[in-house]
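Saturday, quiet lab. Running sequence design on the structure tokens for the scaffold JK sent over.
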């Protein structure tokens, strides 16, 4: 079933990958009874709105610039897009970050059950991790879905991106308004919107915003937690 849905949308997956995604679905539903992971639980809806939505990026040329890339998923929650991408790209290295410990605990179980040895899990906030040496400018790609408005998200994410790497933001149809509010943030963080890719999902328009990191971010960014949201770089 998952394989067919993916194929209809131009994505070929192996039997093993289908089994991994099926097991992920079961774990998601099982643990969602105990901790808040997702509002969407109906099978087909999860496959489309969480799995496929996370997956479309692998079709993009800009996501395939190297054979082995490093990817950080900021605010991964129950693992979107990070876990799905890790299943689809077994050669890439993934780091999944979230500020809620319970979600990281859930992801530890997923990592073990799906045997995803190429992912690392981190409990923490973007504002703190982005200042640490082992994270700053270390990733070819930073991805993030449903975490914050673009101007805030840029300050969270760009410091993690290596030079000439990309931050890729998953957005809905209000993306243009968010971009209009991001000019200042892009300038200050020296980043540039390189490409916007559109795809459709259950009659909904979705957009991937590819933001290129042009040079290393000034040391004072990201600012402290609270400051970023209260006073975004407009
Ligand atoms: N990306 C997932 C989850 C979205 S909910 C999805 O698309 O389904 C937003 C998640 O971001 C939450 O799990 C929250 O704990 C996390 N989050 C919010 N602000 C954060 C920050 N500053 N640093 C790290 N994680 C953050």
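Result came back. Writing it out in full:
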């Amino acid at each position: 079933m998952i394989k067919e849905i993916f194929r209809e949308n131009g994505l070929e997956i192996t039997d093993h990958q289908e089994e991994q995604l099926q097991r992920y679905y079961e774990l998601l539903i099982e643990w969602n009874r105990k901790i808040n992971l997702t509002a969407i639980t109906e099978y087909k809806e999860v496959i489309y709105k969480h799995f496929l939505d996370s997956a479309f990026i692998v079709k993009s040329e800009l996501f395939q610039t190297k054979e082995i890339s490093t990817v950080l998923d900021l605010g991964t929650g129950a693992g979107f897009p990070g876990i799905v991408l890790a299943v689809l790209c077994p050669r890439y290295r993934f780091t999944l970050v979230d500020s809620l410990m319970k979600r990281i605990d859930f992801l530890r179980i997923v990592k073990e059950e799906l045997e995803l040895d190429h992912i690392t899990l981190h409990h923490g906030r973007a504002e703190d991790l982005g200042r640490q040496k082992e994270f700053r400018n270390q990733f070819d790609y930073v991805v993030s879905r449903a975490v914050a408005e673009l101007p805030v998200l840029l300050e969270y994410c760009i410091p993690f991106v290596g030079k000439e790497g990309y931050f890729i933001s998953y957005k809905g149809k209000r993306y243009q308004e968010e971009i209009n509010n991001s000019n200042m943030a892009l300038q200050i963080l020296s980043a540039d919107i390189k490409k916007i890719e559109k795809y459709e999902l259950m009659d909904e328009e979705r957009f991937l915003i590819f933001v290129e990191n042009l040079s290393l971010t000034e040391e004072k960014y990201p600012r402290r937690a609270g400051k970023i949201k209260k006073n975004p770089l407009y």
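Notes for JK: The CA atoms of residues 66 and 140 lie 9 Å apart. The mean pLDDT is 96. Ask whether to fix the surface positions before the next round.
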